[in-house]
Amino acid sequence: MAKIRITQIKSVIDRSERQKKTVQALGLSKINQSVEVEATPQIIGMVRKVNHLVAIESI
Hints:
Layout: E1 3-8, H1 17-25, E2 34-38, H2 41-49, E3 54-58
Antiparallel strand pairs: 1-2, 1-3
């Protein structure tokens, strides 16, 4: 599988609890923090739900 780098670019303050937990489940907790993960369908779905809070780039 391909790997992607997910970077949190916006705060989760004043976001729904569901969005906060999705960002946390992706392994992010601070702005400008990045994680590298496998591009599985589950991860892609989570990223789509919070795409306004994160930036994605393929590795």
